[in-house]
Design a protein that fits this description.
The protein contains 8 helices and 5 strands. The protein is α/β, with parallel strands linked by helices and about 220 residues long. The chain has one domain: 3-Layer(aba) Sandwich (Rossmann fold). Strands 2-3-1-4-5 form a 5-stranded parallel beta sheet, sandwiched between helices. Helix 4 runs antiparallel to helix 5. The two termini are about 25 Å apart.
Length: about 220
């Protein structure tokens, strides 16, 4: 039996990585095998791409990436990620828990970067993921001013390219996420401006329903 594919989406500081780990723990305790992963940068190729996009590495030029070039790099990262890690893991019966996927590409590149036409970008993105669809997408909704403040308080946090955009950029990301979730019934929106345990309780209930398990 193929494993499940669960995606966590959200803006900066919404708690995606924490909930990926908590979800992995929850499923492991119930006997499921999981792979916790993220985008961009989960593969060897992806790590190079991530540095080019986010980390101002030596590989990058002094000029900022053109928005279209940035989009192409994100899609290249996804194509490699799906082919190298996600699909093989699912075929082994492993459930894949991914921090960011389709929604983030569209929210940041279409919603905030204003790239278009949207239908063309959606087709390109679907091609990059080989048509793979998540079994469940959890969108952790949070006011961007709260999310950015959360990240700035993290002792181990270093600012990446997207952290440095203004609040209006991140609000445009949030607005797109909310519109997209409203139009896609397989998405579940959770209020992330609550204690981590409260949000995870709701996630665990979704997992019980998806996997047919009970507490």
């Amino acid at each position: 039996m193929d494993g499940k594919f669960i995606v966590f989406e959200g803006g900066e500081g919404s708690g995606k990585s924490s909930h990926v780990q908590l979800t992995s723990d929850f499923l492991t305790q119930r006997g499921f095998t999981t792979l916790a992963t993220h985008e961009p940068g989960a593969t060897a190729v992806g790590k190079i791409i991530r540095r080019l996009i986010l980390d101002h590495a030596e590989e990058a030029t002094t000029e900022p990436l053109a928005a279209r070039a940035e989009l192409m790099l994100f899609l290249a990262d996804r194509a490699q990620h799906v082919a190298e890690q996600i699909q093989p893991a699912m075929q082994r019966g492993t459930s894949v828990l991914c921090d960011r996927f389709t929604g983030s590409t569209l929210a940041y590149q279409v919603g905030a970067r204003n790239l278009g036409p949207e239908a063309l970008i959606e087709q390109m993105e679907a091609f990059a993921r080989a048509g793979l669809e998540p079994d469940l997408t959890i969108y952790l909704d949070l006011d961007p001013t709260i999310g950015i403040a959360r990240k700035q308080r993290q002792a181990n946090h270093t600012m990446n390219t997207f952290d440095q955009f203004d609040v209006e950029f991140h609000q445009a990301v949030r607005d797109y996420f909310l519109r997209y979730a409203h139009n896609h019934p397989q998405w579940v929106v959770l209020d992330a401006n609550r204690p981590l345990t409260a949000v995870q309780f709701d996630i665990n209930q979704l997992l019980d329903k998806l996997y047919g398990t009970t507490h």
